[in-house]
Amino acid sequence: MSEQAIPTRRVFPPLYVASGDVSVDRLAFFHVLERLKTQKRTGWVDHKEHHMYRMAILALCTSDTKLDVSKCVMMCLVHDLAEAQVGDITPREGISKPEKRRLEGEAMQNFVHEMLHGSPAALQIEALWKEYEEQETDEAKFVKDLDRFEMATQALEYEKADGTPRLQSFFDSSLPFLRHAEVKEWGEAVTRERQSIVDKQHNGARLTDPGPYCG
User: Fold this and answer.
1) Which helix (H) or strand (E) holds 189?
2) Which of 54, 81, 134, 163 is deepest in the core (most CB within 10 A)?
3) What local confidence, expressed as pLDDT, does residue 10 receive?
4) Which domain of life does the protein's organism represent (predicted)?
5) SS3 for 14?
């Protein structure tokens, strides 16, 4: 994890203004998605699309037959979509949660209606995003747990690369809040692996990363 400076005042790009040409506006949305490939998560060295993609694969790994896994995968891919417009806003920036929700909602409204003209596909994206935000369904709660678990996994991989367990706050803010039984098991595996790293260091051995990480 890199020590990136947190901006004191974030500057947001202007919202898109529809041209009236469906093809042009749709292509503009496709271009906006490129920001997720280049935009780093605040305080991290990996990018948003890495986070969302791994979450989608994690969803496919569940053995919970009660979940609509296809919906979970799609939700993983859209849950942070608004950040293509507003970026990865953190509490340290002084933006309140209501204001963050307003900005993200405004971004989604722009994507769905200005760029994608309220098409059936656009409305499905919007519905998935809203379902995740509302956190009422089993699928939304599961995906939230994947979000937490992926963060902890990424933190562990940074520690393995550095050879130093120094990201305790990321584990404290994620693993204790897991609710889904299977994801809890995955979290326990992360905790065990991390503890083995600490034990090795106490015995004078430096951790070596088994390979490259990308999040």
Assistant:
1) helix 181-202
2) 81
3) 76
4) Eukaryota
5) coil
